[in-house]
Write a structure and sequence with these properties.
It contains eight helices and five strands. It is of the alpha+beta class.
């Protein structure tokens, strides 16, 4: 193995591996697929830059339109929801499935996930395979403990269904509100009245979604911390 590692020894600690895959990418026209791949590369580059402090291994294209990265468990509650949201935003209209696995890593911790292996990778692979076989979107979680897997998967599915029902304009409003913009700021950016922004937010049930996502953040953090403590 080429040692390009962040650390020089094997890690018995618990980590999180995320595998993402564009749904049915081989069915896309050649020109469309090339454009999607370019957008994917740009999105992963932005993720690696913006989330660098939480990454043990940067997100890398591993096979075809599949990508993979390794997270520090202490950032699970913030990075995972942000990552899924960002990828859906950056590749709007391109469905992406995710498998999220938690466990140990048997090899050295290195910059590229291609050079690592262990239970965390096996859990993520099982999760992404389940996502494909069962057509589950919004992230499939495995390795966080049976009870936590059930909670995290249930919340992931509900939140995905919620935001997948939004119209393009509702999603644009939600993107800005999630970034922390106030309604009058979102109105200025979208060239709408504040009343219109409020109407779109109500129609999208943004308040309900934000509450649900906050609970998901907390559930992820608690599950990851418990697994680290038990390791």
């Amino acid at each position: 193995m080429t040692k390009r590692g962040l650390h020089s020894k094997k890690s018995a600690a618990t980590h999180i591996v995320i595998i993402g895959d564009i749904v049915a990418s081989r069915r896309l026209k050649t020109s469309t697929r090339r454009s999607v791949q370019q957008h994917l590369l740009a999105a992963l580059k932005n993720l690696n830059r913006s989330m660098s402090e939480g990454l043990l291994a940067e997100f890398t294209i591993t096979l075809g339109d599949e990508f993979e990265g390794v997270l520090r468990p202490e950032v699970a509650g913030t990075i995972i929801p942000d990552l899924l949201w960002t990828m859906e935003k950056e590749l709007a209209g391109v469905p992406i499935r995710f498998g999220i696995g938690m466990g140990g890593i048997d090899t050295e911790i290195v910059r590229s996930p291609l050079e690592m292996d262990g239970p965390a990778f096996h859990a993520a692979r099982t999760a992404i395979d389940a996502a494909a076989a069962e057509e589950k979107m919004g992230g499939v979680f495995m390795g966080f403990g049976c009870e936590n897997d059930l909670i995290l998967n249930g919340m992931a599915r509900l939140l995905y269904y919620h935001r997948n029902e939004w119209s393009p304009q509702q999603r644009r409003v939600a993107n800005l509100l999630r970034e922390g913009k106030r309604k009058h700021e979102a109105a200025d950016i979208l060239n709408l009245t504040r009343q219109a922004v409020s109407a779109y937010a109500r129609a999208a049930d943004w308040a309900g979604y934000a509450e649900g996502e906050a609970a998901w953040h907390m559930a992820l953090a608690v599950a990851a911390n418990r697994m680290v403590a038990a390791a």
